[in-house]
Design a protein that fits this description.
Number of helices of chain A: 13
Shape of chain A: globular
Radius of gyration of chain B: 21 Å
Oligomer: heterodimer
Distance between the termini of chain B: 63 Å
Structural class of chain B: alpha+beta
Largest sheet of chain A: 2 strands, antiparallel
Distance between the termini of chain A: 47 Å
Strand content of chain A: under 5%
């Protein structure tokens, strides 16, 4: 579903080419060629990718929680089947991404441990609660819509396994946004109370979604290296603007009001202008102090711990079967 | 902890009858049977396949990227292996 914060503080700085391998690597990046797992790569490039891909994977998995919560309360069997398919997709996306990260020589267990220990981050957006059914609409429409904006440029990422995972994810993702808009449309064409539910969901999700694109370019001190390496292709502010320009007419079509009194078309720029973004709120959410941050991690840890005996039993069974087969041979 | 991680498997899918199995990704599973089951759940949710192969990742032997030139460059000057190398008279038409 989503990636962000790849260039929050703690990222690497671009290094000057030292060795012939590094010069060859830089030349390949300049020619827009892909880098594959066993190719030589600078340590900082590898580390940046591990951090970004694992954050992205964690976001997919944590992202299953707010929606998973609504599966039993979906208003119809059709909506329930759709929501289950979407949540299952997010689980699959997490798996593709963990697999891409593992090609860089890290273990999945170590990545998951880092998330559970609070050392690895995930998207700020999943620290907010999904309070009503309309939130399923708002998440699909806005959160997945923002994710698609973010992820399409990643299909051209310089690291082959990440780019291939992103192509697969983007293919599956477009139904997520459309089903969300479809939920909003049904509510907005329903009773006044239903339309009010949709407006309430938009009011709560709008600013966290605008923040999802990450800090403004002026404060993104580390995005230089990820841009130079062809990991990131479009800046946070440009993606955010693109999202706002695409979303405002969609809100108008729904007959909903975006909760920003400063929102205005700027004919000179050819873009919408928006009001100030509360970055303190963003940093709180990223830093593990969002409304649901503790609950999300606690849920993940519990799932991991309660499933441990199943994973151990399956492995013990497989080892026993293999030993038995060797004996028989 | 890491030695209790389920082994890694590479997944190959035949998208339809008559086509080759193609590598689509990898996953962790306790054994081959479970790997097939999981590959079905993860890689064929939208009718992407009619057949699945799984191979333990550690069983794959790959060529070394450092040998790329030695292995593949000798083919660059053997253009006569391609049909377009031969300029034939127009009268021959399709051959």
């Amino acid at each position: 579903m989503y990636t962000q914060a790849m260039d929050i503080p703690g990222g690497p700085k671009a290094v000057a080419p030292g060795s012939p391998e590094e010069a060859a690597f830089n030349a390949r990046i300049a020619r827009d060629e892909k880098i594959e797992p066993r190719d030589w790569m600078p340590e900082a490039y590898r580390k940046t990718l591990v951090r970004q891909i694992s954050q992205h994977a964690h976001s997919e998995v944590v992202g299953m929680l707010p929606e998973g919560n609504w599966i039993t309360r979906a208003p119809s069997l059709k909506r329930k089947a759709i929501l289950m398919a979407k949540v299952q997709d997010e689980g699959g996306h997490g798996l593709y991404l963990y697999a891409a990260a593992e090609t860089l020589g890290v273990s999945r267990d170590d990545l998951i441990d880092a998330l559970h220990a609070g050392k690895a981050k995930y998207s700020s957006i999943f620290n907010y609660a999904a309070l009503s059914w309309a939130d399923m609409g708002a998440i699909g429409w806005l959160v997945d819509g923002a994710a698609i904006m973010n992820q399409i440029p990643l299909c051209r990422c310089s690291y082959g396994p990440y780019a291939r995972a992103m192509i697969r994810i983007c293919k599956e993702e477009s139904f997520h946004q459309r089903q969300g808009f479809d939920i909003m449309l049904a509510l907005c064409r329903g009773t006044p109370a239903q339309k009010q539910m949709a407006q309430d969901a938009l009011d709560r999700w709008w600013w966290p979604v605008v923040q999802m694109f990450g800090p403004p370019d002026a404060d993104s001190v580390h995005s230089g290296a990820t841009m130079a390496w062809g990991i990131k292709r479009i800046s946070n502010d440009d993606l955010r603007q693109k999202f706002i320009d695409a979303t405002v007419p969609q809100a108008e079509l729904l007959g909903l009001t975006i909760p920003d009194p400063h929102l205005k078309w700027n004919g000179e720029r050819g873009h919408y202008d928006i009001g100030p973004i509360d970055w303190d709120e963003f940093w709180r959410a990223v830093g593990g102090d969002g409304p649901c941050s503790r609950e999300r991690i606690a849920t993940r840890v519990r799932a991991q711990e309660e499933g441990a005996w199943v994973r151990e039993a399956a492995l013990a069974h497989a080892r026993k079967q293999a030993a038995r087969a060797r004996k028989a041979a | 902890m890491s030695n209790n991680e389920w082994p890694l498997w590479e997944v190959f899918i035949r998208s339809k009858q008559g086509l080759d199995h193609r590598h689509v990704g990898s996953l962790h599973a306790a054994d081959a049977k479970q790997a097939v089951q999981m590959a079905r759940d993860v890689y064929t949710r939208r009718m992407e396949g009619v057949s699945i192969w799984v191979v333990a990742s550690e069983a794959i032997t790959a060529s070394d990227p450092d040998d790329k030139a030695e292995l593949f460059e000798p083919m660059a000057d053997k253009v006569y292996r391609h049909p377009t190398f031969y300029k034939l008279p127009k009268e021959v038409e399709h051959m």
